[in-house]
Amino acid sequence: MSYERLYKYYDRFVGVCYDDLSSLISSVLGAFDISGRVLDIACGTGELTKRLCDLKFDMVGLDLSDKMLMKAREKCCAEFVKGDMTDFSFDEKFSAAVCTLDAVNHLDSVDSVESFIRCTSDALKSGGVFIFDINSPYKHKEILADNTFVYEDDDAYLVWKNEYDGDKGRVEIFLDIFERSGELYERSHESFFEYDYTPEQIIDMLNESGLEVISISGGFGMEDIDEHTERYFIIARKAE
Ligand SMILES: C[S@@+](CC[C@H](N)C(=O)[O-])C[C@H]1O[C@@H](n2cnc3c(N)ncnc32)[C@H](O)[C@@H]1O
To answer: Whole-model pTM?
Structure first.
């Protein structure tokens, strides 16, 4: 299971403006007049869940990692549930679901993405809205590629090294984290894969699960799509 070590550092190095992301999601939910319970699938450390709670959405977070969930529970009194995004069900139906920051790219096969979308559709009420993003194959091939990135703050140093495998359509991400401990640094290591999925594949899967695509845009909902799009931001809706 990944994130066993990264959970401690995730918020410090994730580099995403959750204030912007939560206001974008809130405005989309507002546009569809969504109220009621919202499911945050693969909620991680709950940064988005917490902000959507603050914006008065009634949130439930689901994640597979005990450590990420532990961090999430420290920040916010939303309900957090341990579960696999490819195999979950709830007794209740949700008004909306979100799944952000390329969590979908962590799934290692088309079958598992199909299962994820089917479970999500089953968990939604009729007319329920599903908002999620995926990293593009372009980002995996050209941006993450075989590149190395370094991030540093006052007491930690992160080396993020990638290995792209075009034949397998995936990039392996190796993270070495050095945390200051007195005069020395303590090193820990984590690795996981991100897999390529195209918007066309995702649209087919959504349609097969009774979810109609409302829009696909670039970045976090603001950009047109072109061959350099790094992130697809997808809004879908369950048929009434
Ligand atoms: C990149 S983080 C995104 C976290 C959060 N959505 C955010 O926006 O910060 C990916 C998350 O997906 C979770 N994850 C990966 N595979 C999963 C699975 N099969 N079921 C549930 N969660 C999973 C990881 O534990 C991790 O918390």
So the answer is: 0.96
